[in-house]
Amino acid sequence: METLRHIVVLVHLVGFALLFGAWAVEAVNRRFEVTRLMHWGLLIAAVAGLVLAAPWGIEYDLNYAKLGVKLVVLVAIGALLGIGAARQRRNGSVPPALFWSIGALTLLNAGIALIWR
Ligand code: HEM
Q1: Cα dist. 27→39, 46, 54, 82, 96 in Å?
Q2: Which of 35, 36, 97, 105 has its CA 20 to 30 A from that of 60?
């Protein structure tokens, strides 16, 4: 059970890596676009995160306040990705504040995961 949980954590981290990595590629190349890989990363992190939010394969209590905050941040990132993709289709670009918020909120959720125990 514990090993299975570690595998789901790995999948969760792959989702995070895809979302943040896809965003970083856009930022470094100064394209500032919302890409399909960001949506896939968020979806993978969300599904694995929800599976991990259930208390199985562990002997300690989960911090549900922290998980609730992470879920709210994840929904906010999803909304930004959706709005960004729609704006991109219509205008050909994403507002800079929206683009930077996607990276900042992704990093915030990783920070919450690691720092808030
Ligand atoms: C973009 C959104 C998210 C990002 C970037 C993210 C990032 C991370 C990272 C980096 C870790 C590893 C930290 C560690 O080793 O303890 C982690 C763990 C975890 N995440 Fe997320 N997360 C996200 C969304 C969520 C959501 C929505 C949930 C559930 C509501 C969730 C539940 C968990 C749980 C339960 C763990 C701990 C795994 C364990 O030690 O058993 N995450 N997350």
Answers
A1: 16, 23, 35, 18, 10
A2: 105
